[in-house]
Amino acid sequence: MQKEQRPAVADWFTADDGQVRLKGTRCNDCGTPYFPKNTLACRNPQCTGAHDGSELVEYLFSTRGRIWSYADARYKPPAPYVSADPFVPYVVAAVELEVEQMVILGQVERGLTVDDLAVGMPVELTVGTLYEDDDAEHTVWMWRPVND
Is 6 part of any domain? Predict the structure, then answer.
């Protein structure tokens, strides 16, 4: 029997419509995007909006970008971070999003190594399993090379 899939971190991404999207906020005055969500006020010192940056709206980020940097994760992260048990090394990538031009860190799709990646390589979002317990597969967003 297949286990239920649950986001490992609630409300940081969605795949409801079949397309994986990171969820954040954006200042309605100056357009500055935030990930993860910013719920207080715009932190952009140049924001001169009518609401002084206090109107933040939910924002779905673009789905593609280019690898800015990447590394092997060979050691189990310390608490409170959760990983598979037993620990399995993985690759992380810092990706500059095409539209927002901000860098988002995430794991790389399982099965890929640092030898499969390069700075500047186009990648897209996907969903993968971070860890499993008796009740569910706990999922996170991951990066994978674009195949078009």
Answer: no
Query: What pLDDT is recorded for position 111?
Result: 94
Helices and strands: H and E segment counts in the chain: 0, 10
Confidence band of 52 (pLDDT split at 50, 70, 90)? low
- The verdict on whether omega for the bond into residue 145 sits within 30 degrees of 0, i.e. cis, is no
Total domains in the chain come to 2
Q: What is the pTM of this model?
A: 0.88
DSSP string, 62-118: PSEEEEEEEEEE-SPPPTT----SS---EEEEEEEETTT--EEEEEEPTT--GGG--
Q: Where in the sequence is the domain holding 123, given as residue range(s)?
A: 64-145
Give the pair of three-digit tokens for residue 78. Answer: 């310390």
Residue 7: closest CA among 94, 134, 127: 127
Find all residues with CB under 8 Å of 11, minimum gap 6, and list them.
23, 37
Q: Which of 76, 62, 73 is nearest to 13 (CA)?
A: 62
Higher pLDDT, 24 or 10: 24
